[in-house]
Amino acid sequence: MIAIILCGLFILPLFSSAQRDLSMQAERSGPSDFSDVDAYIAREMKRQRLPGLALAIVQGDRVLYLKGYGQADSSGRPVTPQTPFGLGSIGKSITAIAVLQLAEAGNIDLDAPIQRYLPTEFSGAASITVRQLLNQTSGFSQIATFSSSLSSAGGQEQDALEKNAMSYAERFLNEPNTKTEHPYRYSNANYVLLGYIVQQVSGQSYGDYVKEHIFGPLSMRDSFLTHEEAAAHGLAEPHRRIFGYNAPYDGPYVYIAGDLPAGYHYTTAEDMSRYMIAQLNGGRYAGNAVLSSEGIRLMRTEPVPGTYGMGWSTEQLNGLEVFGSPGGSLGFQAQAFMVPERQLGVIVFANVLDAIDAEFPDTHVITTTYIASGILNLLNGQPAGGAWLSISQKYLFVNGLILVLSAWLVYATMRTAKRCLGPQRPDHSIHRGRSIRVLFKIALHFAILFMILLLSTTQLVPLWHMAIIFQPDVYLWLQIMAFLLALKGIMEIIRLVRSYRQEPRQREMPN
To answer: At 436, which helix (H) or strand (E)?
Structure first.
């Protein structure tokens, strides 16, 4: 399974970038000026099989362009700039703003050990600071968070957040640690703990704090912190890809309440246009400030180039500094790019996501990343690019590989069935099959089935359950292949038993 997915994800990295002056775009104010953008998005939606897409483009303190494309759900409801989508990890910047607001108010010391803000003593919490959580330099790992994420699906926001935060604290902070510096590792646990600290310090739930201190001042009226509330206001229908075709998903893992501060926010292109304006204008939108200009600068500042700021990452694209983040949750993906030098911001939402949407090995580069970079190119008067593989091309390779492996296994199973059920012939290979080596080979026929059953019924490897959720088509195929292998193994055992019974008769036959 891993080999198939990795092969399917392997594409040449391609980042389009802005190279010429974008200031002329400030004069563009009508939809007719964005016909090239519309045509590009229509082409990419077809190539990448996107059900729906929403776009916002801002410059300075102005919204240049807002538009929805495609369908929000299977009823044919069109996407509009007011259609909510899942924000994914872009929401970490919202949590960062909340923490920095409390720091600017003197309620949080960024360089204090996080133990100061936790209700329970954890020996490892004395060597990790709030700033390190913000910069993802606590040393926490991402894979270790999956178990808590899965178990908290469907819970209530405040209780689930506290449960997950304490679960991560027990996992990562129970061991004493004298190090003052830790490696950069991207992990949702950092921002879940930060969201919990916001609750502890402010005395409000994380959701109530964000609504009052961020969404309210920025007039983000169509932004939500629970799936139920977003669904009641026209949330786009999330999709997974099944062998390359989009399938709506309505399961419990579309919203992980316990991981809310790490990226389970819902918002619209229109609301995010206001959010990007604040990011590009020192924390201010329409006369309201959510953060100081120094705080906004801090969000973009990485402790080491190429790591992580506070909710954002920065890149140099052909001499232009671009900061932003991709975002992904089950059925949703997004990409925000902002260019401080040009005061330009772009965000793209889509309502489908699976593992094949990501680039290997940099899985933070997804389909909307390429589309957003192509839009930046168009705004710069350059070709959009688009040399990367389409979803159809990726799945042509993956499905072709699956078909070849399936055909081989079906042929091998039928061949074994013919030998097993047909007339028994002298077969010296069967006699040699009494060796431990051949018996071990037969046992391998059952190993995959046993492994799948073990992984599916236990939490030994939470990553397995995440793979099942995001790539159910590959899991279904593996189940079928495991059944065929087990069936082939049973027939090999029957052949071996028949050979044992036949051997005495062969010895009694005259020469």
So the answer is: helix 436-457
Each residue of 159-213: pLDDT tens digit?
889 999 999 999 899 887 777 788 899 999 999 999 999 999 999 999 999 999 9
CB atoms within 10 A of CB 143: 11
- 137 — pLDDT class (breaks 50, 70, 90): very high
Q: What sections of 246-316 are H helices per DSSP?
A: 260-263, 269-280, 293-300
Q: Which has the higher per-residue pLDDT, 418 or 220? A: 220
Place of tokens 């961020």: 214
Cβ–Cβ < 8 Å for 482, 448:
yes
Q: Which long-range contacts (CB under 8 A, 24 or more apart) does 166-171 make?
A: 166/120, 167/258, 168/140, 168/192, 168/193, 169/118, 169/120, 169/122, 169/125, 169/193, 170/122, 171/144
Asked whether the beta carbons of 5 and 474 are under 8 A apart, the reply is yes
DSSP β-bridge partners for residue 328: 333
Pure H helices in 35-177: 35-48, 92-104, 130-134, 146-151, 157-172
Q: How many Å apart are CA 377 and CA 339, to the nearest integer?
A: 12
Tokens standing for residue 256: 């992980």
Q: What tokens appear for 469 in the block?
A: 């959720």
Q: Pairing relation of β-strands 284-285 and 288-289? A: antiparallel
CA atoms 476, 478, 479, 483: torsion sign: positive
**Statement: residue 495 has pLDDT above 90:** no
pTM of the model: 0.84
Burial (CB < 10 A; 0-12, 13-18, 19+), residue 77, is middle
Helix axes 391-421, 2-9, angle to 10 degrees: 150
Residue 395 predicted with pLDDT over 70 = yes
Average pLDDT of the chain is 85
- With H, G, I as helix, E, B as strand and everything else as coil, classify residue 269: helix
